[in-house]
C-alpha cells in the first residue's frame, strides 16, 4: 500500500471536494450509458435496458459514497458532520455556550499567559545565538560566591581567549558618559564591547550593524532600542548621524532591536562603543578592564571548561596575588541561572494558581454539559433508537466539547496576550529586560494542546454518562421527571471539587494579600516620604575636570559646594551626602575590628559613608550621643556612628558611646579613590541611631557603621534630598544647581524617590505581584464556581418544575420549595469546603516556604471560607426564589 | 455457460492484469474480464467499483481523463510502477498457490 498515494487523494478530497464528486458521477454516467447501449444492442428494449442498468449499478449517490468509503474518507466526513453539528448546537444554546467558552477562555488564557511568561523568562529569555552556551565566570571563595565580578586586563583577556573550551569570548566594560552639545548634560550608560560582539551575540541589528571587527579604533556608536526611541524618537534616518559623548563625536552605525538589552546586570546600556576606544579616551593610568562572557564550544561539558579555565585563572592569581583571595575556584554559570533562582519559584507558584483556575473552568464545563445533557436525553435517545452506537454518541459529544474548548482557547490566547504582561509590569526587575512576551508557535501549540486536553477532560465524563444505553429510562421521561432523579448526584463531586479548589485559591490569595499588608506595615526606621536620591558620577576620564577634583580636598569642596547649592533651592528642606546608603537595602560590607574584643576573626558590618545631615534628612532617630560636626566631617577620621544592632551585637552590656572600632581595609588606593590620612585607624563611637531597614524591607537590620564621607571617596556620590512637595518635581532645579557648580556635570538619569526604592525591593515586588495576581485568580475562580453552582441549581429546578408543582399543589410552603432548591447544592458545597480546608492545611507549609521565609502572619482561613459560603448561598438562592415563585398550575402544565 | 464465483481478493488481481495490457475505462475493464473469462465470471457492477477505487487509493492504478471510442469523456485507468510490482507479486503468489492446491488434489492414494 502506498501511503503517499492515499495522502494525495485525501488532500484532493479536502481541497477539491465538489470536483471529486463530479468526477465520480461522470464516470458513473459514462458506465451506465455504455452499459445501456450494450444492452440495447443485445436486443433489450430501451426502457428495460435503463431499468436493468439502474438495478445493477445503483444510484449515483451510492457510487459517491462507495468512493469516499473506499478512499478512507468516511471518517473525515463523519467527523466533519460532528463538528458541524457541534457548531450548530453551540449556536443553538447560546447561554450555555457563552458561559462554557468564557470559563475555558479564562482558564486557558491564564495558563497560556503563564506559559508564555515561563517561555519568555526561563526557556528562551535571551535573543543571543546559542544563549544556552553563554556563561558567566563566577569566582567562588570559601565563603561562597564572590560578590565581585571577575574582570581581566588586556593581556589576561588575550590568554583567556585562547582556552580550548571557549568558542568565542566577549569582553565588555560598563561606563557612564555625558551627552554633550545639548542644553543640559544628560547621563548615558555606555557599554564598551570587544569588536567580536556582532558575531558573539548573533543578533541582527535593526538598522545598520552591530559592533564589528572593522570598527576597532573608529569613533562609532551603536544605539540601544530604548535610547534610540527616547533620544531620536525612533528616527530611521539616524544611521550616519553623530552623537557627542564627553565632547567626543561618534558616528552612529547601528541600532539594535528591541529584544537586545545587553547588559542586564549593571543596567541596560544606552550606547555601545568599540572596546578599543576605551583606552584612547580613558585616563591612561587606569587599566582597561574586560568583564568576560564566555561562549563554550558545543561539545565541551561545563565541568571540563570549569577545570581548564580554573587553571588559567589560578595562573593569573599567581602573577597578581593582590587581586585574588587566597582560596577560590572558578565556576561557569549559565546566564539564565540568576533569573531561574529569582523567578523560578514565583512562576511555579503562579503556574500552580492558574492550573487550579483551569481545573475549575473545566469542572464548570463538565457541569454545564451534564446539566444540559439532562435536557438532551430525548435527542440522544432518538439517535440511539435509529441505530447510533455508543461510541458514535461519545464521539459526537466529545467533538461538541472540543468545539467549545477550541473556541475557548482561541479567546484565551487573545486574553493571554494582556495577562502575560501583567507580572512584568508589576515586578519588572524580576525578569530579564530582554524577555518579550510574544504569541509565537510554541505558545500557540501549547494552547492548542491545552484545548485538546481540556476538551477531552471535561467532555469525557459527561459523554460516558450521557451515552449510557438506558433507553427505557428516557422513554418514560415524564414519569422520570416527576418522580425525581438521582442523576444530579453525578454532578455533586464536580461541584464539591470546584468549591474545594476555589477555597484553596481564595485562601492562597488571602495569605498573599495578608503577607503583603504585613510587609507594608513593617516599621522602616526612616521616613521615605518626600525624599529622593540624585546621583552624580564624576568625570574621572576627563583630564581637564579631573584635575580639580582628583585630590581629596578638591573633591570634598566639589561635593560640598553642590550640597550647598541644592540646599539653597526653595522647597528643599534638607540635603545629605551619601554613598550607596539609600535604604531599604544599603551599605557595603566591610571587615570591622572592635577594641578590647578578641580580634582573631574580623566580622563584617555594613559601612555607610555620609554627611552628618543624613540622619536628620531621613528622619532617623538618634538614640544616644550625637552625629559628627561639620568640622569632624571635613576631617573624616576618628569618629563613627553605629546603629542599635551594632551596639547590641558588640557591647550589649556596656555603654557604646566612647568605644573604639576600626575598619582595617578601608584604605584609598589607586588613582580614582581619595581618602583621609587615617581612614583605617581607630575611631570612637560618638552616637547610636535606631535601626532602619538596610537588608531588604522584610529583614531585620544588620549591624552598620556610619562614617564621614570624606574619609573614603569614590568618584561618585549621591544626594538625599528632602523636599516640601513632590521630590521628583524638583529634579530640574537640582540639575541646574549641579550645573552651576560644574557646567558639564550631568545628573544620573536614575534618580528616584525613596518610596520607589521600597517598591523596587525584591521581596516587596514579589509579594505585591502575588497578592495582585492571586487576588485576581481567586476572584475569577470564585466567579466560575458560582456560575457552575448557579447553572446546576437552575437546571435542576427547571427539570423538576413538574415535581415542584405537585408539591405545591399538595400545599408545600414556598419556604419549603426554596429549601428543596437550595438543598440540591448544599451538601456538595459543604463537602467541598471541608475538603478544601483539609487540603489547604496540608499544602500551606509548602506555600509558606515558597512565598516568604519569615514574618508570615498567622494563616487565617475564616474570611475566605465566609466569603465562599456567602457567595454560594446567594448563588443557590437566586434559582430557589424562582422555584418558590412557580405557580402550581403552570408548573403542572409545563410538560 | 457455467458461472464461476471468484474467491475473495482475486478481483483485484484480475483488474490489475486487464489494465496491464493498456489503459482502460471502468466499463472496459469489466468487459475485458468478462470477455477473457468467456462470460463465465459474473461481476457485480456496483461493488466492482469499490475494488477499482481501493486499487487507486493504494496507488497501483491511476485514473486519467481521456476520450472513449465513441468520443465521450471517460476516465482511463493505467497501471503504475508500484502496481506492476504488485501484479507480479500477486501473480506469483496465485500460481504458487494454485500449483500447491492442484498438486494436492491430483494426488492419488498410492502416492501417499
Secondary structure category of chain B: alpha+beta
Summarize the largest interface: chains and residue counts.
A-B, 26 and 23 residues
User: What's the helix count of chain B?
Assistant: 4
Q: Which segments of chain A are poorly predicted (pLDDT under 50) over 5 or more consecutive residues?
A: 280-285
Q: How much of the residues of chain B is beta strand, in percent?
A: 5-15%
Tally of extended strands of chain B? 3
Average of the residue pLDDT scores of chain A: 83
Biggest sheet descriptor of chain A: 11 strands, mixed
| Coarse shape of chain B | elongated
Task: Describe it.
The complex is a heterodimer of chains A (895) and B (112). Helices cover 53% and strands 15% of the residues of chain A. Chain A has 30 helices and 24 strands. In chain A, a hairpin with a 2-residue loop joins strand 1 and strand 2. In chain A, helix 13 packs antiparallel against helix 15 and helix 18 crosses helix 28. The mean pLDDT of chain B is 86. In chain B, strand 2 and strand 3 form a beta hairpin. Chain B contains 4 helices and 3 strands. The chains are: A alpha+beta (895), B alpha+beta (112).
Amino acid at each position: 500500500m502506498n501511503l503517499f498515494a492515499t495522502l494525495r487523494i485525501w488532500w484532493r478530497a479536502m481541497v477539491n471536494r465538489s470536483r471529486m464528486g463530479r468526477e465520480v458521477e461522470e464516470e458513473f454516467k459514462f458506465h451506465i450509458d455504455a452499459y445501456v447501449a450494450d444492452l440495447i444492442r443485445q436486443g433489450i428494449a430501451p426502457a428495460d435496458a435503463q431499468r436493468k442498468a439502474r438495478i445493477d449499478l445503483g444510484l449515483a449517490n451510492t457510487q459517491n459514497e462507495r468512493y469516499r468509503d473506499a478512499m478512507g474518507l468516511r471518517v473525515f466526513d463523519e467527523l466533519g458532520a460532528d463538528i458541524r453539528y457541534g457548531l450548530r448546537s453551540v449556536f443553538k444554546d447560546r447561554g450555555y455556550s457563552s458561559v462554557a467558552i468564557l470559563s475555558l477562555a479564562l482558564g486557558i488564557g491564564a495558563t497560556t499567559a503563564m506559559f508564555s511568561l515561563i517561555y519568555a523568562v526561563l526557556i528562551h529569555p535571551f535573543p543571543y545565538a546559542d544563549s544556552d552556551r553563554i556563561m558567566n565566570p563566577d569566582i567562588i571563595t570559601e565563603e561562597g560566591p564572590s560578590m565581585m565580578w571577575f574582570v581581566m586586563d588586556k593581556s589576561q583577556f588575550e590568554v583567556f581567549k585562547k582556552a580550548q573550551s571557549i568558542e568565542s569570548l566577549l569582553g565588555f566594560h560598563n561606563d557612564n558618559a555625558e551627552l554633550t552639545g545639548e542644553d543640559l548634560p544628560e547621563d548615558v550608560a555606555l557599554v564598551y564591547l570587544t569588536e567580536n560582539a556582532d558575531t558573539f551575540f548573533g543578533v541582527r541589528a535593526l538598522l545598520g550593524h552591530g559592533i564589528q571587527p572593522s570598527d576597532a579604533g573608529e569613533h562609532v556608536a551603536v544605539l540601544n532600542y530604548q535610547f534610540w526611541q527616547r533620544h531620536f524618537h525612533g528616527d530611521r534616518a539616524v544611521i550616519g548621524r553623530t552623537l557627542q559623548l564627553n565632547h567626543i563625536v561618534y558616528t552612529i552605525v547601528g541600532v539594535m532591536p528591541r529584544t537586545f538589552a545587553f547588559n542586564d546586570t549593571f543596567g541596560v546600556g544606552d550606547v555601545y562603543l568599540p572596546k578599543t576606544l576605551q583606552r584612547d579616551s580613558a585616563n591612561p593610568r587606569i587599566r582597561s578592564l574586560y568583564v568576560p562572557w564566555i561562549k563554550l564550544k558545543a561539545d565541551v561539558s561545563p565541568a571540563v571548561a570549569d577545570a581548564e579555565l580554573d587553571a588559567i585563572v589560578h595562573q593569573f592569581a599567581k602573577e597578581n596575588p593582590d587581586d585574588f583571595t587566597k582560596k577560590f575556584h572558578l565556576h561557569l554559570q549559565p546566564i539564565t541561572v540568576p533569573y531561574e533562582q529569582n523567578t523560578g519559584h514565583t512562576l511555579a507558584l503562579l503556574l500552580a494558581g492558574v492550573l487550579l483556575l483551569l481545573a475549575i473552568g473545566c469542572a464548570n464545563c463538565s457541569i454545564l454539559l451534564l446539566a444540559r445533557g439532562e435536557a438532551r436525553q430525548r435527542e440522544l435517545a432518538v439517535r440511539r433508537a435509529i441505530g447510533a452506537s455508543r461510541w458514535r454518541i461519545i464521539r459526537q459529544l466529545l467533538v461538541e466539547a472540543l468545539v467549545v474548548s477550541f473556541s475557548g482557547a482561541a479567546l484565551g490566547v487573545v486574553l493571554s496576550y494582556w495577562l502575560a504582561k501583567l507580572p512584568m509590569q508589576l515586578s519588572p526587575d524580576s525578569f530579564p529586560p530582554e524577555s518579550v512576551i510574544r504569541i509565537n508557535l510554541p505558545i500557540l501549540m501549547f494552547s492548542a494542546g491545552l484545548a485538546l486536553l481540556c476538551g477531552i477532560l471535561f467532555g469525557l465524563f459527561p459523554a460516558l454518562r450521557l451515552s449510557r444505553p438506558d433507553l427505557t429510562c428516557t422513554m418514560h421521561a415524564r414519569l422520570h421527571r416527576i418522580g425525581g432523579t438521582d442523576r444530579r448526584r453525578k454532578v455533586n463531586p464536580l461541584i464539591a471539587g470546584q468549591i474545594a479548589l476555589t477555597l484553596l485559591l481564595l485562601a492562597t490569595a488571602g495569605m498573599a494579600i495578608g503577607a503583603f499588608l504585613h510587609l507594608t506595615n513593617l516599621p522602616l526606621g526612616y521616613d521615605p516620604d518626600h525624599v529622593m536620591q540624585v546621583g552624580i558620577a564624576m568625570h574621572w576620564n576627563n583630564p581637564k575636570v579631573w584635575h580639580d577634583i582628583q585630590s581629596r580636598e578638591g573633591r570634598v569642596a566639589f561635593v560640598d559646594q553642590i550640597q550647598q547649592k541644592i540646599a539653597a533651592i526653595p522647597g528643599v528642606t534638607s540635603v545629605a551626602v551619601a554613598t550607596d546608603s539609600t535604604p531599604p537595602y544599603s551599605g557595603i560590607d566591610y571587615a570591622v575590628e572592635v577594641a578590647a574584643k578578641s580580634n582573631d576573626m574580623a566580622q563584617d558590618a555594613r559601612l555607610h559613608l555620609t554627611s552628618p545631615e543624613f540622619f536628620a534628612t531621613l528622619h532617623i532617630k538618634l538614640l544616644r550621643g550625637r552625629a559628627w560636626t561639620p568640622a569632624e566631617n571635613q576631617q573624616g577620621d576618628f569618629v563613627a556612628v553605629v546603629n542599635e544592632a551594632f551596639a547590641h551585637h558588640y557591647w550589649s552590656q556596656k555603654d557604646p558611646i566612647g568605644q573604639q572600632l576600626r575598619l582595617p581595609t578601608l584604605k584609598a588606593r589607586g588613582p580614582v579613590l581619595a581618602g583621609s590620612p587615617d581612614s583605617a585607624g581607630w575611631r570612637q563611637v560618638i552616637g547610636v541611631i535606631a535601626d532602619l531597614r538596610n537588608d531588604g524591607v522584610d529583614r531585620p537590620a544588620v549591624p552598620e557603621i556610619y562614617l564621614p564621607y570624606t574619609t573614603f571617596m569614590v568618584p561618585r556620590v549621591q544626594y538625599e534630598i528632602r523636599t516640601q512637595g513632590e521630590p521628583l518635581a524638583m529634579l530640574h532645579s537640582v540639575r541646574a544647581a549641579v550645573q552651576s557648580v560644574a557646567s558639564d556635570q550631568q545628573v544620573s538619569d536614575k534618580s528616584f524617590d525613596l518610596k520607589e526604592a521600597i517598591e523596587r525591593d525584591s521581596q516587596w515586588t514579589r509579594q505585591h505581584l502575588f497578592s495582585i495576581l492571586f487576588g485576581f485568580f481567586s476572584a475569577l475562580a470564585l466567579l466560575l464556581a458560582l456560575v457552575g453552582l448557579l447553572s446546576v441549581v437552575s437546571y435542576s429546578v427547571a427539570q423538576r418544575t413538574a415535581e415542584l408543582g405537585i408539591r405545591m399543589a399538595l400545599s408545600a410552603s414556598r419556604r419549603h420549595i426554596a429549601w428543596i432548591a437550595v438543598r440540591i447544592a448544599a451538601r456538595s458545597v459543604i463537602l467541598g469546603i471541608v475538603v478544601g480546608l483539609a487540603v489547604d492545611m496540608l499544602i500551606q507549609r509548602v506555600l509558606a516556604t515558597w512565598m516568604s521565609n519569615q514574618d508570615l502572619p498567622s494563616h487565617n482561613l475564616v474570611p475566605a471560607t465566609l466569603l465562599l459560603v456567602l457567595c454560594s448561598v446567594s448563588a443557590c438562592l437566586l434559582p430557589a426564589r424562582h422555584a418558590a415563585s412557580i405557580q402550581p398550575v403552570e408548573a403542572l402544565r409545563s410538560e | 455457460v457455467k458461472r464461476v464465483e471468484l474467491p475473495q481478493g482475486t478481483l483485484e488481481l484480475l483488474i490489475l492484469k486487464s489494465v496491464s495490457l493498456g489503459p482502460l475505462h471502468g466499463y472496459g475493464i469489466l468487459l475485458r474480464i468478462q470477455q477473457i473469462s468467456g462470460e463465465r465470471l459474473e461481476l457485480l457492477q456496483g461493488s466492482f467499483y469499490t475494488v477499482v477505487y481501493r486499487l487507486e487509493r493504494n496507488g497501483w492504478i491511476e485514473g486519467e481523463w481521456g476520450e472513449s471510442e465513441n468520443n465521450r469523456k471517460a476516465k482511463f485507468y493505467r497501471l503504475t510502477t508500484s502496481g506492476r510490482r504488485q501484479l507480479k507479486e500477486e501473480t506469483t503468489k496465485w500460481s504458487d498457490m494454485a500449483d500447491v492446491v492442484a498438486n494436492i488434489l491430483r494426488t492419488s492414494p498410492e502416492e501417499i
